[in-house]
Amino acid sequence: MNGEIVEEEKSVAIHITEENKVLLADSIKTKLALIPWHNANLLCSIHRVHQKFRKLDEFAYTPEMVSIGPFHHGKDNLAAMEDHKLRYAKALLSRTITGINKMDECVTYMEEIEDVTRKCYSETIKLSSDEFVEMMVIDGLFMIELFRKNVNEVVRIERGDLIFDNTWGLSSLVRDLVLLENQLPMVVLECLLKVPEVNEELNGVSINILALRFFNRWMPRGEKVVESSFSNNQGKHLLDLLGKTFHVLPPKYSNEESIKRINSGKPVRSVIDLKRAGVKFVKSSTNGSYLDIKFKDGVMEIPPLKIEDQTDTLLRNFIAFEQCGKDHVTDMTSYAFLMDSLINSGQDVGVLCKKGIITNHLGDEEAVAKLFNNLCCEVTLPDFYYSELCDQVNTYYESRWPAWKATLRRDYFNDPWTIISFVGAIVLLVLTFLATLYAILSYVQQSKK
């Protein structure tokens, strides 16, 4: 064939010996034996944020000042706070004569719950037992002392404190403590409070109340509201505890037909469109849930919300937490979807600001609109809490009479001069009608003569 050498393709078969087959089968059996039947950890409450959320906004899920728990432990950019955490732990235990000597008691209690604490995290923690227990003890004592310094004037704040003695420290710390990946199980704090010297530092106030007071400067509520409504909430960690103060809404749906109704809810129009159709927006009370939005007789009541630099991070981590489990409530996700529907532009934000519903500390109304419009990217909403409300709003919007009233009010009654002109036109029309009627009656009467 023109000097070409043609080689036949040969298939090569690799034969496994009987001995290797047995060894391979035993290896697979061993792996199967180590895998539990169910891939479910009922204690797991602290998760890694899914990569699809991280790619949208890495900063919203990453601590910038302090590491709490194992997920970001040992990172170089957070090393400065490690010594400061030790100072807080030392300060907490040093206020009693026997305090420092109680460290062995803290360690003993923590060792008893080490296994339970490890299971609170969504992945295997590759720290030795000593390293893990030490991290839990120091982080737990640090947080207890932090909450004490925040509310009690008796606890001294030293000069040079990285948190309280500068303009940016506390703001950055508050942000870091609501990150889903930066959480400490509440069982750790409860465990440390078994030590009498530590528990006495709370002066009879529950750790939940102290934690909520710490966050209250960010999402302000009255002291009575914090104490009466939220003192008994048992959060799995700080983010969960804070979240429970938002979604204390009663369940609306309990059967399959209702679930279908939830999933079929249509979004509402923007604030500007609804306003043109006659919908009024009113600021409701701050004494209940931030998510308790109501609609009745053309009036939508929305609890006030303060928008700051950290608000985006807070809402994103609430949503990320709700996305981590099938049985989690989706109230915050529902809230984000509803606000995304209501707010399409800075004009919509402007209306809500004028009504006192939104307090904008970002300055730019378009920035607030962008915040809500980006919250729900890549987010799944299986149960929409506001489905019934949206149906009511859409029915109202589609009816003609409210839209006609709104148009009349906007075009003819928007200032005193147009009102006078409109009334004058009506009076002139009535007089013209009466004059015409009088002329007709006079003509008819003369025709009879």
Explain how this protein is built:
The protein is mainly alpha-helical and 449 residues long. The protein is built from 21 helices and five strands. It has helices at 18-34, 51-54, 80-94, 103-112, 114-118, 129-151, 169-176, 186-192, 196-199, 207-216, 223-230, 238-244, 256-263, 271-276, 311-322, 331-342, 346-354, 365-375, 387-398, 400-412, 416-448, and strands at residues 280-283, 294-296, 299-302, 305-307, 358-360. Strands 1-3-2 form a three-stranded mixed β-sheet. A two-stranded parallel sheet has the order 4-5. Strand 2 and strand 3 (299-302) form a beta hairpin. The model is unreliable at 253-263 (pLDDT under 50).
Major sheet: arrangement of strands:
1-3-2
Order of helices and strands: HHHHHHHHHHHHHHEEEEHHHEHHHH
**Biggest beta-sheet profile:** 3 strands, mixed
Radius of gyration: 32 Å
The rounded distance between the terminal residues' Cα atoms is 131 Å
Beta percentage is under 5%
Shape: elongated
How much helix is in the residues? 40-55%
Number of helices: 21
Helix-strand makeup class: mainly alpha
Q: pLDDT under 50 segments (min length 5)?
A: 253-263
Q: How many distinct beta strands?
A: 5
The whole-number mean of residue pLDDT values reads: 83
Question: What are the key terms here?
Answer:
DUF247_pln, 449 residues, 4% strand, two-stranded parallel ribbon, transmembrane helix, mainly alpha, transmembrane, membrane
Topology:
Elements: H1 18-34, H2 51-54, H3 80-94, H4 103-112, H5 114-118, H6 129-151, H7 169-176, H8 186-192, H9 196-199, H10 207-216, H11 223-230, H12 238-244, H13 256-263, H14 271-276, E1 280-283, E2 294-296, E3 299-302, E4 305-307, H15 311-322, H16 331-342, H17 346-354, E5 358-360, H18 365-375, H19 387-398, H20 400-412, H21 416-448
